């Protein structure tokens, strides 16, 4: 079974650790590649050797904003914005630039864990199920 490929664009070490733990506890295999800034994320998305099934994107990353990453990303890859921003303009711009979903990071640990699990189930699992059926 081919693992799901997830690109996590996040610069907060605590969030990276927590998201890796949540993804590691899922019932299916998931490879997580981390970009700690927007420039690195844009380079990974432009590279043809890496084809993620899902991108989890924080908007507040250094070097190149999450919105700029969205702007230069490939439309066929589902990108879910997972950010602490509650700004309605960030939300609107994210959808205009192709984000599939905008999720504000919960403060509560259980809600945070559930949000990350739901993101993967909603946006990566349909593609994963298609790959399993095709094999």
Q: What features would you highlight for this structure?
A:
135 residues, alpha/beta, Rossmann fold, five-stranded parallel beta sheet, globular
Brief summary:
This protein has 135 residues and is an alpha/beta fold.
In spatial order, strands of the major sheet run 2-1-3-4-5
Number of helices: 6
Under CATH at level 1, the class stands as Alpha Beta
Mind describing the biggest β-sheet? 5 strands, parallel
Gyration radius, rounded? 14 Å
The residue ranges in which pLDDT falls below 50 over 5 or more consecutive positions are 131-135
Morphology: globular
Domain count, please report it.
Answer: 1
Beta-strand content: 15-25%
CATH names the topology as Rossmann fold
**SSE order:** EHEHEHEHEHH
Helical content class: 40-55%
| Overall pLDDT level | 89
- Give me the count of strands: 5
Query: How far apart are the termini?
Result: 9 Å
Q: Can you give a write-up of this model?
A:
There is one protein chain. The protein is of the alpha/beta class. It has a single domain (4-130), classed as Rossmann fold, CATH 3.40.50. It is built from 6 helices and 5 strands; from the N terminus they run βαβαβαβαβαα. The protein has helices at 13-24, 38-46, 66-71, 88-96, 109-123, 125-134; strands at 4-9, 30-35, 54-57, 79-83, 101-104. It has a 5-stranded parallel β-sheet, with helices on both faces. It is globular and about 35 Å long. The termini are close together. Residues 131-135 have low confidence and may be disordered.
């Amino acid at each position: 079974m081919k693992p799901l490929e997830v690109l996590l664009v996040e610069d907060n070490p605590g969030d990276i650790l927590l998201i890796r733990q949540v993804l590691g506890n899922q019932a299916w295999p998931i490879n997580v590649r981390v970009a700690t800034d927007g420039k690195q994320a844009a380079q990974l998305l432009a590279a043809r050797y890496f084809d993620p099934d899902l991108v989890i994107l924080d908007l507040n990353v250094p070097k190149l904003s999450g919105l700029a990453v969205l702007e230069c990303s490939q439309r066929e890859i589902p990108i879910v914005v997972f950010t602490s921003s509650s700004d309605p303009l960030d939300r609107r711009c994210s959808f205009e630039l192709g984000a599939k979903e905008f999720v504000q990071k919960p403060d509560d640990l259980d809600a945070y864990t559930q949000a990350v699990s739901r993101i993967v189930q909603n946006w990566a699992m349909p593609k994963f199920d298609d790959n399993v059926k095709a094999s």
